[in-house]
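During data preparation, a discrete fold description was generated, as reproduced here:
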Amino acid sequence: MKTNNAEVLIFLAPGFEDIEMLTVVDLLRRKKISIDMVSITDSLEVTSSHNVTIKADKLFDDADFDSAKMLVLPGGMPGTTNLAAYSPLTDKIREFAAAGKWLSAICAAPAVVFDALKVYEGRKATCYPGFKEKMSDAVYEEKAVVQDDIFITSRGAGTAIEFAAAIVDRFLGKEEAEDVLKSIIYYPAL
């Protein structure tokens, strides 16, 4: 049964990166942007790459893709490869790209999922440094966060706060993104 029309769907696969997933959920919920954690398994409980079990809000089949404005992929291993191997999700990513709907990914996911699906069409993106050689559809940029057209990409756990703030900015504007960073006492590295 589909309920709760979330604006953002973030996907949990076994082996996801805890910080990258939870930081996005936390900062978006602080700004009242509705986000559902969606399990791609047959269980709401999904275990991260660091052996932390999180209870998702929805199973994949119960997620409301029609109401969603953005899909978010956390990185982590083997989480990213599990996301890439789940064809119902990759089909939805292709649909979102074709419709010009927002797609965001962090760490390995921009390369292992988005680039492999050839959805970038030459747009700029970033990813975890160890995966940049896998990026052939996107123009790689070595920045914490790269925004280009429908895409927001980021490098890894250390850039998760900036990644989440970029998503807030996309929905609510720069002032609200700066406000959420200020509220958590975020200061960029010296």
Observations:
- The chain is about 35% helix and 20% strand.
- The first strand starts at residue 8 and ends at 12.
- The domain at 8-182 is CATH 3.40.50.880 (Rossmann fold).
- The chain has one domain: 8-182.
